[in-house]
Known about the structure:
The chain is an alpha+beta fold. The chain has one domain (11-165). The chain contains four helices and eight strands. It is globular, with a radius of gyration of 15 Å. It starts with 32 loop residues before the first helix and ends with a strand. The relative contact order is 0.21.
Amino acid sequence: MSKIPTDLGRSLGKGIGQLCPFSLGKNNNQNHCAHYVSHMMGYEFSGPTCKNYTWADKQSPAKGAAIRVDDIFRKCTKIDLLSSKPTAIAECLIFVTLATNIKKVGNNYVMGNHPKKHIGILRQGKVWNYSNTHNKVVADSQANFVAKFTNAYKTTGTTVEFYYGAFI
């Protein structure tokens, strides 16, 4: 069953250190978009998490969160191009990356590990995501999110693609 987040508003404008009790949350030099989404959605998968970042973090009883966009992408049971998202789906995950970072294997999309990738949560017409540039949570309109990341990731000869994924 999908968890639909209802408490995103409490995170707006906050830095990751205010949302994560582990040492990774204090490091503003890291990309925290997947980290933020995972804390808000309760995603803690095997593999890299903020809880297993250091030995001291591993000793804490607090729950950790996944930290990689491609790990979350891989766990989604329904992924497709954002342009194909049915209007009936008003809440989902939104992914952005370069077209060269996505492969289609059979009927499934697979995301690679290229650094140009980002994730947000679409809820009530806004894409809630972590601005690594400003080190805080922002809520962009879907159109603004698409424009912002197209401008940020597009270079000559590249294509920026957006995907939606069902909540895990």
